[in-house]
Design a protein that fits this description.
By secondary structure, this protein is mostly helical. It has one domain.
Length: 294
């Protein structure tokens, strides 16, 4: 059975009431819970910009903010790999959710596909977080190849940029579950994978347009990030809140802006740039891992 996906979308707005609620809640929680909040704000405010950039790129491509967070936190700030992973996951839980709401406002998310993917997503995230725990060796060893693979997947997805129809079949249902499982595992280990793995499958195998596939990928990465954030906060612990608080704040702004940017610029050029960045990112990690894996 074939079903046409409408490319039309309502007018997008950057500001929303829930964004005001989030900022208010953040300010209250930050000043109530952080010791010496003003001093920490003066020293760590640049992380707001890191969060903004990560969410903007993550929501434009479904790669996830980890493509920005992890290399910057490790290489620019010398933060341990697992702490960088935890920061990325916590930040994505805010940024990708903000982005998913914005993509939903645009009418691009097919929630039927999202529902199909959730069982595999939860299973993959649980396996990679609670059974095969993320470690410095695992994060650094996998991030490089994963980033390279995601960049190559973006280049490959450009071949199907003009697709206009999606065919809903049992094979699609099964494929989405399997892809979301492997994407969930990858996201639990390196904070990227869930959104792009499923998005590329939908574009290459089932005829989805890039806009629809990316919107679905953003929604799935939102679900994965929120679930993983809960695991890290309530079970695994040791979240570096002095950094994650600022990156999380930045993500909500970058995420809200992403669908607006996506509607106004050439998507093929944008995806080529981000694919190149992802591949370069991955090569840097592979090189660094080979020199000093821990």
């Amino acid at each position: 059975m074939a079903q046409t996906l409408s490319p039309s979308a309502p007018r997008l707005r950057f500001w929303s009431p829930w964004l005001a609620v989030f900022i208010t809640a953040w300010l209250i929680a930050y000043f109530a819970l952080m010791p010496d909040a003003m001093a920490l704000l003066r020293s760590n405010y640049p992380f707001i910009l890191v969060g903004f950039a990560g969410a903007l790129i993550g929501n434009l491509t479904a790669l996830g903010g980890g493509i920005v967070f992890i290399p910057i936190l490790i290489f620019a700030y010398g933060i341990p790999a697992v702490a960088a992973l935890k920061t990325s996951i916590i930040s994505q839980s805010c940024g990708m959710t903000s982005g998913a709401l914005a993509w939903h406002q645009s009418g691009a998310i097919d929630w039927q596909i999202v529902r199909w993917a959730i069982p595999g997503l939860i299973a993959g995230c649980t396996l990679s977080s609670l059974i095969i725990h993320p470690s410095a060796l695992l994060v650094k060893g996998l991030y490089g190849p994963a980033s390279i693979a995601m960049g190559l997947a973006l280049f490959v997805s450009l071949r199907r940029e003009q697709a206009q129809k999606a065919t809903y079949t049992r094979l699609m249902h099964v494929g989405v579950i399997v892809a979301s499982f492997f994407g969930g595992m990858l996201t639990g280990w390196v904070a990227i994978g869930e959104g792009e793995v499923v998005a590329v499958l939908l574009m290459l195998a089932f005829g989805f347009t890039s806009k629809k596939a990316v919107a679905i990928g953003v929604a799935l990465l939102s679900v994965a990030s929120v679930y993983l954030a809960a695991l890290h906060i309530f079970i695994l612990g040791n979240v570096p809140w002095e950094i994650a608080a600022f990156t999380s704040l930045g993500t909500v702004f970058g995420a809200r802006l992403a669908p607006i940017v996506a509607s106004r610029i050439d998507q093929r050029l944008l995806k080529k740039i981000f694919a190149g960045v992802a591949i370069a990112d991955g090569i840097l990690f592979v090189w660094q891992y080979l020199l000093r894996p821990l």
